[in-house]
Design brief:
Strand content: 15-25%
Number of strands: 17
Number of helices: 14
CATH topology of the largest domain: Aspartate Aminotransferase, domain 2
CATH superfamily of the largest domain: Type I PLP-dependent aspartate aminotransferase-like (Major domain)
Largest sheet: 7 strands, mixed
Number of domains: 2
Bound molecules: pyridoxal-5'-phosphate
Distance between the termini: 29 Å
Length: 412
């Protein structure tokens, strides 16, 4: 018998907050296990975005009319809300971007372009999402820097004993993910940041998979930069954040040029605002930022510690159920992991298995999950991935296990 976790949150009732969960897919109730790709949105967020467009819509920072003032105030309040959510010292440490990918590109291009030289080392890990790998490859190719990687063990954790030989004085930045989007591994961020600092390296934390799933405080983690996307934490797509300490951001030159980021412009040259506005050229995603603040209110109403417990409970419940499915092999740690489970089933290609699951209304993801080097490391072309969030339930996991059992018979 599986132990039923107790929690002060009524997880089943909370599903009512997410209209999309009422959808039927291929004649079955939707089981949405693709939250690592993007989360679903609660009505509270949808309503705030709609209300913004119905009552406040105007461009920010430029207008002298009432609506523009209203939109600007709401947008800037959202920045403060994000700062409080991640424990930043000031709203000026919050740059709104399109998402994790853009945040990391900003650091690689603007910070890296200024501070890195030929021969410098950028330390990454073998489990990075392409968005925390390709921007560094582009930079390294441009300036002649070198990339170095912390290897991943067979159990999906980082080979941290190698860190002392990898983290040398040549390393200028250590950029790594908090939670692996393929393996569910949770990396010891504070320890990694402290070790990087001890050799004078900067740190960038990819918090795409952790931000909406567990308590997180940038000052406790001790990171220099932290990147995340709104859409994985109940907010709209197209908005994300780059956190950077004030002094750090102040040292970074502009990267995108345009309106909003200047103090004065002549035909020959321009001067630039201080951070964060220096990095927000053009009209930002105003509704997205406001929706992000609403998502933060929603998540904090539940509590990130509760959400983390729920994720961990679902992951361990799923691992127990999946252990009985013939021929199914799960990648990643067997414990201390987030709510992301990648697996392969001997006879079935991950794409075929994922398509099979869809016939029963089960939304999995199949493929390399933007982790091609990691898939190569494990000798698989890809995996099927089930990823859970606050609206996922044990009952849905039971249904997934039934569907996987059917797949075993189908693909044999
Ligand atoms: N980093 C990790 C760990 C991710 O899982 C993802 C998205 O799946 C990203 C970065 C990229 O996020 P986005 O596509 O929102 O920029």
């Amino acid at each position: 018998m599986h132990k039923v976790a107790t929690s002060r949150v009524d997880w089943s009732a909370l599903r009512e907050d997410f209209p999309i969960l009422q959808e039927r897919v291929n004649g079955h109730p939707l089981i949405y296990f693709d939250s690592a790709a993007t989360s679903q949105k609660p009505r509270a967020v949808l309503d705030v975005v709609r209300n913004y467009y119905e009552h406040e819509n105007a461009n920010v920072h430029r207008g002298l009319h009432a609506l523009s003032a209203r939109a600007t105030e709401h947008y800037e309040k959202s920045r403060q809300r994000v700062a409080d959510f991640i424990g930043a010292a000031s709203a000026d440490e919050i740059v709104f971007t399109r998402g994790t990918t853009e945040s990391i590109n900003l650091v690689a291009q603007a910070w890296g372009g200024k501070f890195l030289r030929a021969g410098d080392v950028i330390l990454l890990t073998e489990m990075e999402h392409h968005s925390n790998l390709v921007p560094w490859q582009l930079l390294a190719g441009r300036i002649g820097a070198r990339l170095r990687f912390v290897p991943v063990r067979d159990d999906g954790t980082l080979e941290l004993e190698k860190l002392s030989s990898l983290l040398t004085a040549e390393v200028k930045i250590f950029a790594f993910t908090h939670v692996s989007n393929s393996l569910g591994t949770i990396n010891p961020v504070a320890e990694l940041c402290q070790k990087a600092r001890s050799v004078g390296a900067m740190t960038l934390v990819d918090a795409a998979q952790s931000i909406g799933h567990m308590p997180l405080n940038v000052q406790e983690l001790g990171c220099d930069f932290l990147a995340f996307s709104g859409h994985k934490m109940c907010a709209p797509t197209g908005v994300g954040v780059l956190y950077g300490g004030l002094d750090v951001l102040d040292s970074v030159p502009p990267w995108h040029g345009g309106g909003e980021m200047i103090t004065s412009v002549t035909l020959e040259k321009s001067t630039f605002k201080k951070p964060p506005h220096r990095f927000e050229a053009g009209t930002p995603n105003i509704a997205g930022a406001i929706g992000l603040a609403a998502a933060i209110d929603y998540l904090e109403g539940i509590g990130r510690a509760e959400i983390f417990k729920h994720d961990v409970d679902l992951a361990s419940y799923a691992l127990q159920g999946m252990a009985d499915v013939t021929g199914l092999h799960v990648l990643g740690p067997s414990r201390d992991r987030g709510g992301v489970i990648s697996f392969v089933m001997g006879a079935a290609h991950p794409h075929d298995l994922t398509t099979f699951a869809d016939q029963y209304g089960l939304a999995l993801r199949g493929g390399h999950h933007c982790n091609q080097p990691l898939m190569r490391r494990f000798g698989v072309p890809g995996t099927s991935r089930a990823s859970f969030y606050l609206y996922s339930t044990r009952e849905e996991i039971d249904r997934m296990v039934d569907i996987l059992d059917k797949a075993v018979r189908f693909f044999k």
